[in-house]
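user: can you give me the structure for this one chain? tokens are fine.
assistant: on it. calling the predictor now.
[tool input]
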Amino acid sequence: MKKLLEVTEASLYKGIEQVKIGNTVGHVGSAIQKHVEANGFSVVREFVGHGIGTKLHEAPQIPNFGKKGQGAELTEGMVLAIEPMVNSGGPETRVLSDKWTAVTLDGSYSAHFEHCVAVNAARAGDIDAVKALLAVRVWLLAFS
């Protein structure tokens, strides 16, 4: 489980490294996916990161998988929630009857890290100066 947490957190920073003007959401997702899969884990595809503006969840969607150059272009002033969700087993998930709780389909462990970053000319800037997680949450799910 320690490796799952370490890889998920590292994949977050791999994605953040790609938050640059002119890159695309595909650059972000590709960096996350490559790191995760190189370490033997899988990326959840049903849930993605997103833009943040006057509403919490806005365009563009930020998948944790993809190909460089695909998807929306990152432009100055965008605010994005980068949030890799990584499973120790297969990538499939399901939502329980409460319509909120997400679990892995195969009962494997899952981890989720999240940061909110702003796109600017210098670099991707963490919104929180102390680099705390946007919605302090690391989800470990071991339900089937």
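assistant: here you go. The chain has one domain: 2-126. DSSP finds two helices and ten strands in the chain.
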